[in-house]
Amino acid sequence: MSGTRPSAEELAAAEGAVIPDVLDTGLRVLFCGINPGLWSGATGHHFARPGNRFWPALHSSGFTPRQLRPDEQHALLDHGLGLTNLVARASSRAAELSNEELAAGGAALEHKVRQYRPGWVAVVGLTAFRTAFGVRNAMVGPHDRGIGDARVWVLPNPSGLNAHWSAASLAAEFARLRRAVESDQP
């Protein structure tokens, strides 16, 4: 990739790219996005598009002591945090994903959770969670339905296109999750 901003050609070439997960066993929280956008596919970093509010919300909520950049994603492991996606392939919009892809992604996430055993799984995207797990009435927040031994929390999509959630309300919801995670700690 040339410079820090992908070119139009690099973005087009990123269609279908896969970004490796940031995983380790025993994480406090495994954050699960919907799927990588083209910017992420071109850079190889989760939540990389400028304007995505994941990294600011993570910091503002107290999960990280400073705002990490997407290229510092592996530093999340030092804080007991990890990253994955329901669907691995990059696309220009999450709306391009089929219900079947999301359901298969839910099954793949269940397998990862059983293998890596995080304490919590935070799915970032309410509609994708509903589709992936067949929970039509799911809401943002904690869920009775766990995955393996992990507890589940649904967070709003941090995309800058999600106008229903301001940066402050998004950070507040991330902070609610952080407090729940910390209350589980011995």
From TrEMBL:
InterPro entries the record matches: MUG/TDG, Uracil-DNA_glycosylase-like, Uracil-DNA_glycosylase-like_sf
Residue stretches making up the Uracil-DNA glycosylase-like domain: 20-181
E.C. number(s) listed in UniProt: 3.2.2.28
Alphabetical list of SMART domains matching this protein: UDG (SM00986), UreE_C (SM00987)
Keyword check for Transit peptide: no
Pfam families: UDG
MF (Gene Ontology): hydrolase activity, acting on glycosyl bonds
Keywords, ordered alphabetically: DNA damage, DNA repair, Glycosidase, Hydrolase
PANTHER family per record: G/T AND G/U MISMATCH-SPECIFIC DNA GLYCOSYLASE (PTHR12159), G_T MISMATCH-SPECIFIC THYMINE DNA GLYCOSYLASE (PTHR12159:SF9)
Protein name per the record: G/U mismatch-specific DNA glycosylase
